[in-house]
Each structure stands twice: as C-alpha cells, then as structure tokens.
Amino acid sequence: MTPGERPRKSDGVFRFLSVVFCLALLETTAYGGRVEAEHKNAYASMMYMGTPRDYEFYVATRVMIRSLARLHVDADLVVIASVDVPLSWVRALEQEDGAKVVRVENVNNPYRNQANFDRRFKLTLNKLYAWSLVDYDRVVMLDSDNLFLQKTDELFQCGQFCAAFINPCIFHTGLFVLQPSMDVFKDMLHQLEIGKENQDGADQGFIGGYFLDLLDQPMFHPPANGTKLDGTYRLPLGYQMDASYYYLRLRWSVPCGPNSVITFPGAPWLKPWYWWSWPVLPLGISWHEQRRQTLGYAAEMPMVVIQSVIYLGIIALTRLARPNLSKLCYRQTDKNISLVQAGVRVLAVWSILAAYIIPVVVIPCTLHPILAWSLYFLGSFTLCSIIVNAFLLPMLPVLVPWLGILGVLFVMAFPWYQNGIVRALAVFGYAFCCAPFLWVSLVKIKDCLQVSLEREAFYPRLGESSPPSGFNKLY
C-alpha cells in the first residue's frame, strides 16, 4: 500500500487470517505439532537453546542427520526444535540437510530445584515430544552424540518401547525406540505436573522411572519376516556402545548384537566434535571423518585463514621489530627497581602461560582436530616468539612446553597399543620423562630473565647518559 492510500477491506481480512494462523500455530506447537510424513517411521533428535554449547550441538545434530541420510535409511529424519531455535538453523536443517523440523514449546522442568540437578539438562524433557509424533508407526529417538556405523532400520520392528542398558541397571536414553501415542504423551505431562520422582531431574531419570520394568523384558531380535513386535524389549548393547569400552580396549567388538552405534555419554567438554578431545579420546577422529564426508568445514575455514594470516604476520613483524620490543619492556629507572623487576618476572611468566592458552580459546571448537592442532601450534609458537623478543629470553626453554605438547600428541596417537591400560602407562611414562626438562627450562628462563633485568636496570644503553658518579652495582 503506497503512502496516502486508504486501507482496503481485503487488507484487514488478510491481517485477521494471519493472526488466526499464528494462534493456530501456537496451539499446535504446544503439543508437538504435525509433520508431513513421507515414511512410516522416523529417526528423531531434539534441539533447544539456553546452554553455552548450543552451536556445537547444532553442528552435531546436522552431522548425525546427514550421516543417516548417507546410509539411505528408510525413514524420515525429524528434529524436534524449540521455538527459540534460530530460523537460520531451522532453514539449514530443512533445506540443506533434508530434515523435517517440528517446532515446540519448551517443556517446563519441575525438577530444576533438586539438589543434584545439572542445569545443562534443564530442557532435555523436550525429548518427551517424541511420543507426540503420531504420524509415524515407530520413532527412534536419538541424542546428537551418536556415531552411526551402519544402518539400523531393523529397530523399527521393535515394540512400544525399547532401549539398551549401557549401565547394568539403568537403560540409556541416548537411543530408544517408541511407538508414538498422544495418550502416553499426555500422561507423561501429567506425571510432570504431579511431581513424579526423578533421580536426576532430566530425561534420563524421568523416562527411566516411567518404564521401570524394562530390565526384566526379553532381548530384541528383529523378526525375519519384517513384522513389528508388541510390548517392551531390551536392545542389544551393539545399538548403544559406550565409547569408554573402546577407550579401555582401543578397539570394540560387542558379540551380543550388531555393532551399529557408538555413544559418547562422558564429560561434556570431551564430546567427539571438540578438536581438543583428540587424541585424548581416539574415536573423535572417526566422528570428524564422518563430518568431513557429510557437512564439511566451510563454516570454520574463514576463521582458520584469518588466524593463520595474523600469526604469520606477527612472526614476520617480531623478527623485524625485535630491538623496539625489547626497549618497550626494559626502561632504566632509579626508583622502586626491585618492584619493577618483580613485576617483569610475573608478567613474563603469565605471558608464557597465556601463549599456550590463548590459541585454544580462539580456535573454532568444532574444527577438524588435525587442522585445529596445527593452528594451535602455529598460534602458540607465534605468541612465544613475541615473548622471546620482548623479554630477551632464549627460544628453546620457552618452547619446551610446545615441544612437550607435540610429543604427547604423538604418544597418544600411536595406533599399536594393545589396550587402553598400556596407552595410559605410556602417556604417564612420557610425562615422567618430560618433567625434568620442563623444570630445567623454567630455571633457565628465570636465570636469563634475572640477567636481562640486572643488565637493563643498572647499565645504560648506548647513546644514553652515564649513571651518576659513585653508583655501584650491588649484589
């Protein structure tokens, strides 16, 4: 409508219909909404906002969705996303990854005030929306930290609820099979309202308490004729192999069932998509290989190029400006000389420490480990070169930690250990052997720094005035 033009009746009708549509959309999202099903079954995952690691789990979800598509699974790929998930992420999941996104309101967590409640799990009860996907016969609900090794479509033959026990007494909710049912979904919401007991305040405790008798149920074996089973079943461990088994044995082969899916239920900062988790956790490279074949690393590459150019430029600059940098750090002074010396020592130590920490912070955390570690070593070397030039320190002692970190990567990545115990002992032995070299380097840095301080504090520079007569250097 142009300025000055009177509104037409059709415009008002359009606005009214838009409001009605939005209200209807909110009403449907309150109970999970509907999805246009193309297959009878679905693999589903969830995504929500509100944690410091939202982007990392977004990347992990996309990699898992694409890896399932690459396996040519006979099922829809569904993401249950809270309404606060950015629209750009939703469009990427739908248009680039081929997922069907269901927008939902966050389920209110009534257990958030429990003493043992972990706030990073405050919205994991959104997983209950899987029971509202009634357009499907069966749904395999997944966490984003699953690594698929082969197609698992036989899971759709399982009963009303099926899960694997990676803990001897508690099944794991990182992967389970369910038959959607609005009756079950509404009953679960009712149990939340009346405060049903929940051991951990998250989806693991609630769903585990809702299906208490699963441990006594028979093991799932897919019927050869392709029919679906009724009832509840335990899934073989091969559908949820805990990565810690691999780390202990440095290989895995579970005899009871197919070796299909690996899960990473450990520490949150050692998930496989974090570059620093490899080679601490060897399977991280397998996850990144899957990402390389599916999603790729185009999102992180501009930052990699920018950082590399900056580091190389700094190295060139420090070689050219070395005398100027040293003049900035050491100034002749007659007042509070001991205080100045102590301050410079502290500054030098903290600068060396920062040289090995800052590159970790600025590198994109979901970058491929090989590329990320290379960028880390370039960045730490660059910052160490600044410190060497600024404080007039010898290069080798400052780079001893740099060489030690490089060595430990090779020790951890050695592929021919018999098991995880031997690997751990090798790492411990390497650290034990490196400790004396680290100590000697620290002593050497301290001595060189002391010599530089005394020389710069008590002897004038060329071209500067001589010290007053009667001035003696004290020892």
UniProtKB/TrEMBL annotation:
Keyword Glycosyltransferase: yes
Listed CDD domains: GT8_Glycogenin
Protein biosynthesis listed as a keyword: no
MF annotations from Gene Ontology: glycosyltransferase activity
InterPro entries membership: GNT1/Glycosyltrans_8, Nucleotide-diphossugar_trans
Transmembrane segments: 301-321, 342-364, 370-392, 399-418, 424-445
Signal peptide positions on this chain: 1-32
Keywords associated with the record: Glycosyltransferase, Manganese, Membrane, Signal, Transferase, Transmembrane, Transmembrane helix
Name by which UniProt lists this protein: Putative glucuronosyltransferase PGSIP8
Biological source species: Tripterygium wilfordii (Thunder God vine)
